[in-house]
Amino acid sequence: MRTPFTGVGTALVTPFTKSGDLDEAAVRRLARRQIDAGIHFLCPCGTTGENPTLTDAERLRVVELVVEESNGTVPVLAGAGGYDTREVIHTAGEMARRGVTGFLSVTPYYNKPTQEGLYQHYRAFAASTPLPIVVYNVPGRTGVNVEPSTLARLAPIANIVGVKEASGNVSQMCEIVRAVPPGFLVLSGDDALTLPLMAVGGHGIISVAGNEIPAEMVAMVEAAERNDFAAARAVHARIIALMSINFVESNPQPVKYAMAAMGLLEDTFRLPMVSPAPASREKIDNVLKELGLLKGALV
Known about the structure:
It is a single chain. This protein is 44% helix and 12% strand. It is α/β, with parallel strands linked by helices. The strands form two sheets. It has a five-stranded parallel beta sheet with strand order 3-4-5-6-7. It has a three-stranded parallel beta sheet with strand order 2-1-8.
């Protein structure tokens, strides 16, 4: 049986209607598409889900919809992070009451805590809930890096079960794998670095590209899990252009535009996120066309 939060988890986008409201029908549709494609777990209300621009009520509603659509078939790792530890604990408690399996918790941002502050933040969060917590390290967005030594301190806390490592620093990824116990999950936060991380002992990916191509991401990661890196590399080579173009502008602008071009949702964002510039759209369209993913040409 698969350990929860290993393999491929998709960092779900949040679809909005043309008028800018939460598109509940599309939330359900996209979650079902993921499950039908064989995804291993779902991650609503993260960065890719435009979490900062969702209201408290909307975050909880997205979680409810994804949990209902999953109906226990796959774990739901909900985004519950922020710069106020008390507020994180409160939000997590409300999400727990709606049936989530665990939490993906981005490091406090803007106030830039020290390593000791990060340790105490996650320690307090862990003490407030019996549910598992995956630390989310993305220093390019938060302004603070969770060092391998801090993760090694956090790892003995029973319900801190892993890290989504999105530093982009392959050397740091290798050091984390070396520093933490074997059962502590080290997940890539960058699609393109999934295979390098798994080759040194990582446990999978929390993916942006999974929104567009969940089955392909599952095929790549499951091949790596079988140590069939030749097959994994073949999938990687086929989809690397999409994994890269998703970051031609700030995430989630490219992936949501691509999904709109695929006919999966409306090309609607919450400010300050906006639809990609025309030059970026052209690049995204070209990649989608090469992969047969444009609406009317799905494969």
